[in-house]
């Protein structure tokens, strides 16, 4: 199996779980975006010769990524079930995903037209920041419900 197929299968599995609904675990909500963002930032360390336009693109793209992720997270349904929080993606969540992809594609095309270096925009950083924005919105919704986050998966499986 190629890496592309593995990634596609993993993404589809996550999407199916989120459409059906899954327990909302704080660690699962925050650790992956933090790790992806860290990897993206780390990949910038080895790049020599970034220009002011590259840094501006990074700053603008980062803010845009967090904002679009927050928008997507705003449309995630958060609810209480079995004594703890759950989350579910809705049609509006997927509409926000489509809008986000279109906006980021346009932003990327504009950056390329303006001569921004392609390696100044690590994919992991963009994905990580987007999911950080989603995590912010989902956490905000979750805290208004006054219910506990779901226990870690291993303890859910033992039940």
Mean pLDDT reading: 87
Domain module tally:
1
Radius of gyration: 17 Å
Query: Cα distance, first to last residue?
Result: 34 Å
Q: Structural class of the helices, strands and pairings?
A: mainly alpha
The geometry reads as elongated
- Could you give the count of β-strands? 3
Fraction of residues in H or I helices: 55-70%
The unreliable regions are: 155-159
- The SSE order reads HEHHEEHHH
Query: Biggest sheet: strands, sense, closure?
Result: 3 strands, antiparallel
Q: What is the beta-strand fraction?
A: 5-15%
Helical stretch tally: 6
Biggest sheet strand line-up? 1-3-2
Transmembrane segments: 31-50, 55-73, 93-112
Protein name: DUF1453 domain-containing protein
Keywords: Membrane, Transmembrane, Transmembrane helix
Characterization of the model:
The chain crosses the membrane at residues 31-50, 55-73, 93-112. This is DUF1453 domain-containing protein. It comes from Actinoplanes utahensis. Keywords: Membrane, Transmembrane, Transmembrane helix. The structure is a single chain. By secondary structure, the protein is mainly alpha-helical. It starts with a helix and ends with a helix. The protein has a 3-stranded antiparallel β-sheet with strand order 1-3-2. A hairpin with a 2-residue loop joins strand 2 and strand 3. It has one domain (23-153). Helix 2 (26-45) packs antiparallel against helix 5 (123-144), helix 3 (52-74) packs antiparallel against helix 4 and helix 3 runs parallel beside helix 5. It contains 6 helices and 3 strands. Residues 155-159 have low confidence and may be disordered.
């Amino acid at each position: 199996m190629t890496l592309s197929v593995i990634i596609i299968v993993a993404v589809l599995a996550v999407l199916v779980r989120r459409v059906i609904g899954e327990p909302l675990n704080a660690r699962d909500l925050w650790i992956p975006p933090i790790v992806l963002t860290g990897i993206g930032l780390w990949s910038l360390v080895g790049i020599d010769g970034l220009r002011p336009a590259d840094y501006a693109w990074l700053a603008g793209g980062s803010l845009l990524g967090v904002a679009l992720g927050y928008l997507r997270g705003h449309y995630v349904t958060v609810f209480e079930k079995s004594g703890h929080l759950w989350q579910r993606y809705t049609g509006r969540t997927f509409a926000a995903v489509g809008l986000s992809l279109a906006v980021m594609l346009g932003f990327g095309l504009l950056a390329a037209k303006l001569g921004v270096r392609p390696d100044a925009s690590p994919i992991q950083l963009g994905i990580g920041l987007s999911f950080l924005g989603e995590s912010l919105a989902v956490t905000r919704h979750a805290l208004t419900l006054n219910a506990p986050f779901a226990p870690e998966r291993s303890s859910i499986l033992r039940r």
